[in-house]
Write a structure and sequence with these properties.
- The structure is a homodimer of 417-residue chains.
- Chain A is of the alpha/beta class and 417 residues long.
- The first copy, chain A, has three domains: 170 residues, MoaB/Mog-like domain (Molybdenum Cofactor Biosythetic Enzyme, Chain A, 3-Layer(aba) Sandwich), CATH 3.40.980; 77 residues, 2-Layer Sandwich (Alpha-Beta Plaits), CATH 3.30.70; 153 residues, Alpha-Beta Complex (Maf protein), CATH 3.90.950.20.
- The first copy, chain A, contains 15 helices and 17 strands.
- At the A-B interface, α2, β2, α3, β13 and α11 of A face α2, β2, α3, β13 and α11 of B.
Chain lengths: 417, 417
């Protein structure tokens, strides 16, 4: 593969299940994003079924327009898996068995006390001029072929096999040929602010060309991805650090973490640092807040537990919400959220208490108390604050946003000394 | 458009944001599934950026191979929206302003107290021979063009505009021309059995050609999709019903629902039918079971709530697990699961009680009590049963499987009179 200033590739996704709409092609979108980050331009994407002739056509078409093609899928052991055959045809070569690959597949099966079938061993076949791409998470290796200065890279479809092979093989390979450039990216995760307010505050930064700064909208939070291209990892990291500093100068108070860090993780971490504990009383979220906190390994150090106070009887008997409150202002109200937050803190003996009560929908709304109305109480030994919010979206969105809001309010209190 | 026994179409998705991987193309998958259901075969799918020349190429390519092409996206008001221009080029026609469409757009804006800009009015342009496709949920109409017996259908990208236009215009139009081949499918959802045991029991049924029977593996359950092709909807339904009967004869006791029905839905439904209530006490699942049950709208009729008994102190004080049990056999034990199930039932006053305690990992395992070990108790006024399971997978998988197992055990009890 010769160096190439502005590399163009085409992605070919293979699988009749894609054309039947049985699965959504998230692999192609994920790969497109990774390629964009290293400055490789995707000319177009094509999806074909498990059909040898059409697959060969798609590969030939793609190679007419681009420097190379990346295929996803069709490398498994069944007769429907035709990507190997198609590549052999395009190269004008036969398929041979790679003995080292065959031995590797036999060993993988032997480790599980089974014998590799002849069908499984089809995965060890390759055109003589193609190299296997290692697949640490599956039996089917990828293939890397070159012809007349163009490349064909074939990757398997299961995301847990596909993604590491892209990260470890495809991106470094292509980055070498896009002018020695390396690409690095970092995601900044923001809570407590909407996408449009965040973008407005960032102004001209979102039009920067290197590094780029791109918003990624998520439910209840906003992420920005910084992507830098440079001639060395150190230079790329410097560019990222400069942009991160500029973003933090404007929006630092909303940034709770980077990359894969979740809001629940930083909440658990801060509680641990402060030596403080938490308990929750959930009505409309029904356990989702507890579930999110206990998604974090080690959360048992700070999370005592909670009450899923779904019925009014449980709100009263288990958390101590006064019956007169439930009978007069009702379960979805400021005093109920306050009593839930304070009650769970006292009964479970925690430092912090959170109470959530609201109308997640689709039923149960009234003109006074519409679907999406949620009261969220946050209580410490010093004070209790209750927030009234109306969240948009369906039942799942309202419930998610309510827990996100509660976690953010707690986080704001925890990060201040 | 002439009648056509086996109609083949190509789908062209338009948008640079797709090629950059900023959004996943769920529209194309959704349309593919709807076309398969009416017996229209998708020859291939192509994704192109907002580039006139490439879009024209993609349309011409598609028309060389198929009876017609359906485009998604690129119909909005901005200069990046080039689908109208591309269709005009393929037809060899200019773009003219459709005065009726322009007036409609002006009115839509006037209703919101605004004036339609010249840019907005670009959406009223069409090639003279193309008909507008009504869009009740947006300003950009679709386009329906025909040339030499082939068709081009152009639809906007926002799913809330796109989907109704497919349902109301595209599918009826194409179904008229497919000479009777229809496709119908149904998913059967199974709990309490693994994929390989289920496939073994189904034997030769999974090799049936029409209808087909295909396994879809899910975490903690197994789905089988029956897909039938026939000359009429009634005939397709008969084929599906025959296969469903054959599957039910062999695996009926494991089938809890069809299509989008979830296990938590059928549990809530059966509880409602029986007039029985439920409460849960969760340790390692931390609220996930309550969350899943309250995902079901209307679950408040039968679900009273629960205790997230994460710490030992909460297990004792809020659910009544005896201190000597926690101190001797420990929190992850048969007696603790039993006390959680019975205690939450008694304290919350429900008919059914579920208790879950285990080691979700990644830390906390010992040789005696490995990661994945979970005790699940199911209690009614008549008896309490505790199950000991070792679930495979990471923290999220162990937690999910534990709730799935608990829901399945409850469901088995609820479906018997």
């Amino acid at each position: 593969m010769p160096p190439c200033e502005r590399m163009r590739v085409e992605i070919v996704s293979v699988g009749t299940e894609l054309l039947l709409g049985q699965i959504v092609d998230t692999n192609a979108a994920w790969l497109s994003a990774r390629l964009a980050e290293i400055g490789v331009s995707v000319y177009r994407r094509v999806t074909v079924g498990d059909n040898l002739e059409r697959l060969v056509d798609a590969l030939r078409d793609a190679l007419r327009r681009t420097e190379g093609v990346i295929t996803i899928g069709g490398l498994g052991p069944t007769e429907d898996d035709l990507t190997r055959e198609a590549i052999a045809q395009v190269l004008g070569e036969p398929l041979i068995t790679d003995e080292a690959l065959a031995e590797h597949i036999r060993q993988l099966f032997a480790q599980r006390g089974r014998e590799a079938t002849p069908q499984q061993l089809r995965q060890a076949m390759r055109p003589p001029s193609a190299r296997p791409i290692p697949n640490p998470n599956g039996t089917a290796p990828g293939l890397h072929a070159e012809k007349n200065g163009q490349f064909i890279l074939a990757l398997p479809g299961p995301p847990n096999e596909f993604q590491p092979m892209v990260q470890d093989y495809v991106l470094p390979l292509l980055a070498k040929h896009t002018g020695g450039q390396v690409i690095r990216s970092r995601v900044l995760r923001l809570g407590g602010i909407g996408e449009s307010d965040a973008e407005a505050a960032l102004g001209e930064l979102v039009r920067s060309e290197n590094p780029t700064l791109a918003p990624l909208a998520k439910l209840g939070e906003v992420h920005f991805r910084i992507t830098a291209r440079a001639n060395s990892p150190a230079e790329a990291e410097t560019l990222i650090a400069q942009m991160e500093r500029a973003v933090r100068e404007r929006l630092g108070r909303f940034i709770y973490g980077t990359d894969d860090t979740t809001l629940e993780q930083v909440v658990v971490e801060r509680l641990r640092e402060r030596g403080e504990s938490l308990a929750v009383a959930e009505s409309c979220t029904g356990g989702l807040l507890g579930k999110r906190i206990t998604d974090v390994p080690g959360s048992s150090e700070v999370f005592l537990g909670g009450i899923i106070a779904y019925s009014n009887a449980v709100k009263h008997s288990m958390v101590g919400v006064p019956s007169e409150v439930l009978e007069t202002v009702g379960a979805v109200s400021e005093p109920t959220a306050r009593a839930l937050a304070e009650g769970v803190r006292q009964r479970l003996g925690s430092y912090w208490g959170i109470g959530i009560t609201g109308i997640a929908g689709p039923g149960g709304g009234t003109p006074d108390k519409p679907v999406g109305l949620v009261y969220i109480g946050v209580s410490s030994p010093h004070e209790t604050t209750v927030y009234r919010q109306i969240f948009l979206g369906d039942r799942a969105a309202v419930r998610w946003r309510a827990t996100q809001f509660a976690l953010w309010q707690l986080y704001e209190r925890l990060r201040n000394p």
